[in-house]
Design brief:
mainly alpha
């Protein structure tokens, strides 16, 4: 088994963290206040780690395509991410949180599936 597959739990934690941050910056309270999430001031350190992890996550998903055990999951994660981006890009701000939540739930499900596959291989 590849070390790449064993990184799935770390990205699972990242997905949960992303859902928490998206609720904080795009949540119902923010929408009710009429706040623009771009004006809320994401901390520089948080923005750096968030952006860096997203880049690593995409590289990891692409590398999964080379593994027999992770090929389908990697492809599904890429399709979910691209579809979510395309939907978020063209929708009003009120729907971004809904799309992010569903997108995150699907990715979490795929990561749990990959964790299960890895567990069976051990």
């Amino acid at each position: 088994m590849s070390l790449l597959v064993l990184l799935a739990p770390l990205f699972l934690v990242f997905e949960v963290w992303q859902l928490v941050l998206s609720e904080r910056y795009l949540g119902i309270k923010q929408i009710a206040r009429g706040a623009d999430p771009r004006a809320l001031g994401l901390g520089e350190t948080t923005a750096f780690f968030w952006s860096s992890t997203i880049i690593l996550y995409w590289v990891w998903m692409l590398l999964l395509l080379a593994l027999p055990i992770g090929r389908v999951v990697g492809l599904a994660l890429l399709v979910i991410s691209v579809a979510g981006y395309l939907l978020r890009r063209g929708c009003p701000l009120k729907w971004v949180l809904v799309i992010l939540t569903f997108e995150g739930a699907f990715r979490i499900g795929m990561l749990l599936s990959l964790c299960g596959l890895a567990w069976r291989q051990i």
